[in-house]
Amino acid sequence: MDVSDDELEVRRSKKHTATPNKPGNGPDHPRKKPRLSAPAGSSSSSSSKDASIQKQRKELPIYTGKDAIVDVIRENDVTVLIGETGSGKTTQVPQYLLESGLAGSGMIAVTQPRKVAATSLAARVAAEQGTSVGGLVGYSVRFDEAASPETRVKYVTDGMLVRELLGDPLLSRYSVIVVDEAHERTLRTDLLIANLKTIQQIRNAPVDAKGKASAAKLSPLKVVIMSATLEAEKFSKFYDNQQSKIFSPTPSGMRKCILATNIAETSITIPGIKYVIDTGKCKEKRYVARQAGSGFDTLLTRDITQSSAVQRAGRAGREVSGSGYCFRLYTEESFNKMPVTAEPEIRRVTLTSSMLQLKCLGQDFEEIEFMDKPDEESVAAALKTLFLLGALDNHKNLTPLGRQMAVFPLEPPLARALVAAVEFGCTAEVLSIVSVLSASSHLFVDNTEARDAAADARRKFRHLSGDHLTVLNVVRAYEDVAASESKAGRRDWCRKMYLNDRCLAEAMNIRAQLRDVCTRLNIDWRVSAGDNETPVLKALLRGLVLNTAFLRPDGSYKQAMGPSLVKIHPSSSLADKKVQAIIYNELVYTTHVYARGVSAIPRSFIAEVPVFIQRTAL
Ligand code: CDP
Ligand code: MG
Question: Which family does it belong to (predicted)?
Answer without folding.
Answer: Belongs to the DEAD box helicase family. DEAH subfamily.
